[in-house]
Amino acid sequence: MRAVLRAALGGLPTLLAVLSALAMFSAFLELHGVPATEALQLMVKGAFGSAFAFANTLQRAAPLMLTALCVVLPARAGLIIIGGEGALALGGLAAGSIAMAAPSLSPTIALPLMALAGALTGGMWIAASGALRQWRGVNETIGSLLLSYVAIALFNHLVEGALRDPASLNKPSTPPLPAGWMIGTLPGLDTHWGFAVGALFCIAAWVFMRWSVPGFALNVVGGNAQAARLVGLPVNALIVGACFAGGAAAGLAGMFEVAAVQGSANASLLSGYGTAGILVAFAARQNPLAVIVCAILVGGIGASGSLLQRRLDLPDAATLVLQGLIFANLLAWEAFNGRIGRWQLQLSAPAEPARV
Amino acid sequence: MSLDRRQFLISTAALAAGLAPFGRLLAASQTLTVGALYVGPHDDYGYNQAHAQAIAKLKGLPGLKVIEQENVPETVAVEKAMEAMIVEDGAALIFVTSFGYFAHAVKLAPKYPKVRFAHCGGLWQAGKDPVNVGSYFGYIDECQYLNGIAAGHATKSKKIGFVAAKPIPQVLRNINAFTMGARSIKPDITTQVIFTGDWSMPVKEAESTNALADQGVDVVTCHVDSPKVLVETAAKRVMYVCGYHADQSVLAPKFYLTGAEWNWETVYKQYVSAAQSGAPFANMTRGGLKDGFVRMSAYTAVTPPAARTAIDATKAEMIAGKFDIFKGPLKDNTGKTVIAAGTTHAQTDIALESMNYLVEGVIGTVGG
Q1: pLDDT digits (tens, 9 = 90+) for A292-327
Q2: Are residues B55 and B95 in the same domain?
Q3: Which helix (H) or strand (E) holds B49?
Q4: Are the C-beta atoms of residues A92 and A256 closer than 8 Å to each other?
Q5: Domains: count for chain A
Q6: Both B157 and B179 in a single domain?
């Protein structure tokens, strides 16, 4: 009983944040003369109310899990990385250029190759932010953000220049993927394989953190890098490695956007998945398993925002307001953590203290 | 571990929500449900507003229900939004208004063969693309040519400016038409072009407009999704403006000469009546001033009288089908002949849809 209670307490800030955000959102809607109960019902319908709505939500959640990992993995090593958008763009571009370089490959070879290219490129891009921090003292948050801008500029430059398919007149793109290369949907579900891979990566990341020695070492580095160094942990390697793994996840998200959605690398890749991933990671409080749930939640907000616009004529900004409220509430309820930590400690104390 | 519990709680909530009955709200049998999707805000004073205004005109029509969604990115989000309009609202005609939506419409269309997907800007190809996808677009370069005439009359420095998103054919065609219109008035006018790199870059658009002002440019226009920033910045810097996409005169009443506007209402009403009567779906729809697909903003107090006369005269010729913008001999701004003497490209000529040069008088390169 105590163990269950202790575990549930960990999720309390997120739950409270979501509830208070919903309450504020309802007040916001009522202030604008929109019936809040109807709006909230529609949101649930639009996100989870039917098989179609559910697939809609999952499809939107797919890239968010991978871009959230780009924040979560470095965060476990104590870094705040927010440059996932750039890693996604370059990962997608690397994947797209495989189709350009070797269009005669069979899909069974080409797709893993594209995934590898995407992951390596994205990984190296974020690893660069980690390396700049460890060896040059550059703040990784600012560094990764600026590098993300560089990545996007580079992406546009190449897509509109050297890697452009001359046939893509008004929408500069890399050459389309050869027929048969496109990744299909999950069996029985109208959602592409990126969702399964994203979920798998989240689970793998969690297992790694929880049960492996390097995962433990990474948590030690994140807890106190100096202490980690004192006990002889390879701090630099762990930090840069975590950044690489995070970037690889974002790069893979880019690969899936190319191979499962767009069919080529073009500016449509830059649609804010990297930034939405930051929200998901913070909502999940940097826990890889919770990322799955939070990505579905954010995907659901996107899906239901669509229904809100169509049924209640609400502007798209309404969903942005809700996302903003959730984020602000999450940060606010974080302050609650210290007290929860004390409660958890009390609960984990022996049930019947030994008496002398 | 805490998250197992949390995951359990949230998925239980999700499951409970999923059990709530969700009836399809299909409209009554005789009502046509029309969906419209915009890539940006519906009130952006630009590309999306031009579409949304035309869609708004449909709202009062009998037997019609209109549903809209704005800020839909060109990702799987648009596929799902279209599908949701079909599955959840029973839409039978969807206006897919952003260029980048084309591939997504093509992908979704075979799954819903009875739904008509009308896409703005795409190049529908018979035999390759689904028959229930169609594309519509307008020859707005005609209006940019007329904008150029207004600019030619208004400029004193003989330096005019153009803020553009990307050096793609549709944009180059507008820059060229604007320049040629201006040079038809004063042949030594030059157009300084600045590419911002993307369709919606408000900060860069403001910087570019300021940079143009600093260079002595005194009339500007643009081809970006929302001209709002350009128009307001130009007014602050005391430059005349020619609008684009929609009417921006309210943003700078003392500096707005005229503007090149879309008139999608004409197109949308055609598509709607075809869908209502069951007439075949038009896969390729194109038109200019003559067809009422595009129009000029109303003149303002600052439009020079001489410009009005010149614009009206050229516009009448265009409407009569007697005026071609792109005819030889035409040189690009590197001195190369791009259209030989004696060759004339009518507006409908498909060759113009792959334009890759800037004409003589434009300062800038297609490389960005």
Answers
A1: 999 998 899 888 888 888 888 888 888 888 888 988
A2: yes
A3: helix B47-58
A4: no
A5: 1
A6: yes
CB atoms within 10 A of CB A185: 14
Name the 3-class secondary structure at B140.
coil
Number of domains present in the structure of chain B? 2
On whether residue B158 sits in a domain, the answer given is: yes
User: Which of B94, B112, B138 is the endpoint of a domain?
Assistant: B138
For the stretch B169-179, pLDDT in tens is 999 999 999 99
pLDDT of residue A11: 74
B14–A171 C-beta distance less than 8 A? no
pTM (2 d.p.): 0.83
CA B165 and chain centroid, separation: 12
Sign of CA dihedral B51, B57, B63, B64: positive
- End-of-domain residue from the set B85, B108, B138: B138
Domain of B319: which CATH number?
3.40.50.2300
Q: Is residue A77 part of a domain?
A: yes
DSSP SS3 for B88: helix
User: Among A192-206, A333-347, B42-56, B204-218, which stretch is predicted with the lowest mean pLDDT?
Assistant: A333-347
Give, in degrees to the nearest 5, the angle at Cα B297 between B295 and B301: 150
What is the residue type of A59?
Answer: Q
Residue located via tokens 């709530």: B20
Establish whether the linkage from the previous residue to B329 is cis, with ω within 30° of 0.
yes
Q: Are residues B134 and B236 in the same domain?
A: no
- Residue A306, domain member (yes or no): no
Its domain, for residue B206, covers 141-261+295-363
With tokens 């009502």, the residue in question is B31
Whether residue B252 lies within 8 A of chain A, CB to CB, comes out as no
The answer to whether residue B12 neighbours chain A at the CB level (below 8 Å) is no
Same domain? For B218 and B125 the reply is no
In this complex, which of B6, B42, B81 lies closest to A290 when CB atoms are compared? B6
For residues A163 and A89, the answer to whether their CB atoms sit within 8 Å is no
pLDDT in tens, A95-133: 999 988 988 889 899 999 999 999 999 999 999 999 999
- CB contacts under 8 A, B 262-301 vs A, are none
Domain span at A163: 65-285
Distance of alpha carbon B116 from alpha carbon B133, whole angstroms:
6
| Antiparallel, parallel or unpaired: β B32-37 and B93-96 | parallel
| Same domain membership, residue B246 and residue B175 | yes
How many CA atoms lie less than 13 Å away from A70 in the CB half-sphere? 42
